[in-house]
Amino acid sequence: MYEGKFPHKRYRLTHQFLEKHISKSESILDLGVENPFTEVMLKSGYQVKNTSGEDLDRNTSAIKESDATVVTAFEIFEHLLSPLTVLESIKADKLVASIPMRLWFSSAYRSKTDLWDRHFHEFEDWQFDWLLEKAGWKIIDRQKWTNPTKKIGIRPLLRWFTPRYYIVYAERA
Q: InterPro entries, from UniProt (predicted)?
């Protein structure tokens, strides 16, 4: 068990979900470049390799050529124009993926300074489930959690009660 401090609630909950389903003896391909959660997984004893920042909508070779037994995708599918293509490219039999959920009271995320940090999709849970099933995955477990903020207002209040993140563990159907 990783004993370090988690900078975000979602890191702690994601880590707990990962430990529930994935053995440290398995190799992981984490979609996306190395990030703070990669470090959490490595310090926890997981064998993790990340993709290199290639445009996964156009180039899935890193996924197709990987011999990892597990693929993780933490908050990446919303950035892809065609997540179905990526999901179908995965050779591993296990997938742990999380997404930020679509919030009815807030528009999709769009960075004004980073052209890559934008959301093409913000899914409802049923939409993400359907996407996974269409790509040949069977969902074994799922969890949702909220992302409260310490701001004042109607939207911050709604974030205390409305789930923001959704994570699934799926296996090849």
A: SAM-dependent_MTases_sf
Structure tokens at 109: 């995320």
Report which of 37, 127, 137, 47 is spatially closest to residue 86, judged by C-alpha positions.
137
pTM flag (> 0.85): yes
Q: Answer yes or no: is 75 within a domain.
A: yes
Q: How many domains does the chain fold into? A: 1
The answer to whether residue 16 is domain-embedded is: yes
- Reply yes or no on whether the pLDDT at 59 is more than 60: yes
Residue 3: inside a domain: no
Q: How many residues does the chain have?
A: 173
Give which of 96, 104, 113 is closest to 28, Cα–Cα. Answer: 96
Task: Dig out the tokens for 90 from the structure.
Answer: 């995965």
Q: How far apart, in whole angstroms, are the C-alpha atoms of residue 18 and residue 111?
A: 29
Q: Residue 4: is its pLDDT beyond 90?
A: no
Q: Which domain CATH number covers 62?
A: 3.40.50.150
Asked if the structure places residue 2 within a domain, the reply is no
**% residues pLDDT > 70 (the chain):** 86
pLDDT given at position 80 = 86
Q: Write out the residue range of the structural domain in which residue 48 sits.
A: 9-172
